[in-house]
# Entry
Amino acid sequence: MAETAADHEVEVFYDGACPLCMREINMLRRWDRRRRIRFTDIAAPEFTAESVGQKYDDLMARIHGRLPNGEWIEGVEVFRRLYAAVGFGPLVWLTRLPGASHLLNLGYRIFARNRLKWTGRCDANGCSIDKTN
# Structure
């Protein structure tokens, strides 16, 4: 059965092979009692980036989300939407304050750039992703 646009607030495209990412995703799954988030694991064998009109490398480079209207979001904005969906909306506005917003964006860019190395997916030959789409 096809899902309607109103059955979720945000769809998150996450790297299920990333241990740090999975900690946060699992926490969000527990908190998502109203089932407002659609979770899509881009590392799952059955997932293809083409099926959602994206490139796999782009999806792996940073977290992405898709809103019910089809709009794509990425980076810190995805986390804002996820936390708002599980009931932390009143606190999310703090992340939009100029100083906090800049620090969060910088911190996330550093994390995204180093995520493979920090999660043990790099060796002397470089970083690798198990899946190519």
